[in-house]
Write a structure and sequence with these properties.
Elements (H helix, E strand, L loop, with lengths): L4 E6 L5 H14 L4 E5 L6 H8 L5 E5 L12 H23 L5 E5 L1 H6 L5 H8 L7 E6 L4 H6 L2 E4 L6
Parallel strand pairs: 1-5, 1-6, 2-3, 2-4, 4-5
Helix pairs in contact: 3-5
Length: 162
């Protein structure tokens, strides 16, 4: 029997989601079922349509309805999106509790902490739903020390030259 494994990709550089998606494709090619849950992502139709072509091995769920980035939204729009993203956290808990996938990518989950949408305890409660042998991948810009303690692997993505 194995144990739950947590990978984290964080930093100011581009490529965190790409690295997580690469890992998801690698796991799916080995026969594992993958679910990707995205938070705080503006609409990216070309990426979404590509990932959707990978179904049923890789399934994508987005928990931001508006096309604009979260920081560009009005206060009212932000409030609505916060509720949507909290629903996304509940969905992630359910996915893990029911064993619906072997690999769960929570893209930009660390950003929920940055914006005060979730607390560290909320993220921990999601992680605690994972069964043995479940692989979880977090992405985001900033990583707090408490979340880092939970991780098995942490990759900092930064641009050396742009």
């Amino acid at each position: 029997m194995g144990r739950r494994r947590l990978q984290i990709y964080f930093g100011n550089g581009r490529g965190k989601t790409t690295a997580a998606l690469g890992q998801a494709i690698r796991e799916a090619s080995g026969g594992k079922s993958v679910i990707i849950i995205q938070f705080l992502k503006g609409r990216q139709p070309e990426q979404i349509s590509f990932i959707q072509r990978l179904e049923p091995e890789i399934r994508l769920f987005r928990f931001q309805r508006r096309e604009a980035a979260f920081e560009e939204l009005s206060e009212k729009e932000r409030e609505e999106e916060v509720m949507t993203m909290k629903n996304g956290l509940d969905f992630a808990r359910k996915v893990l509790a029911t064993g619906e996938c072997d690999v769960l990518v929570l893209d930009e989950i660390l950003g929920l902490l940055d914006y005060g949408i979730a607390e560290v305890a909320d993220i921990r409660s999601v992680l605690e739903e994972a069964s043995e042998d479940t692989e979880i991948i977090f992405t985001g810009i900033r990583l707090c020390s408490e979340v880092m303690e939970w991780a098995d692997e942490v990759y900092q993505i930064s641009a050396l030259k742009e």
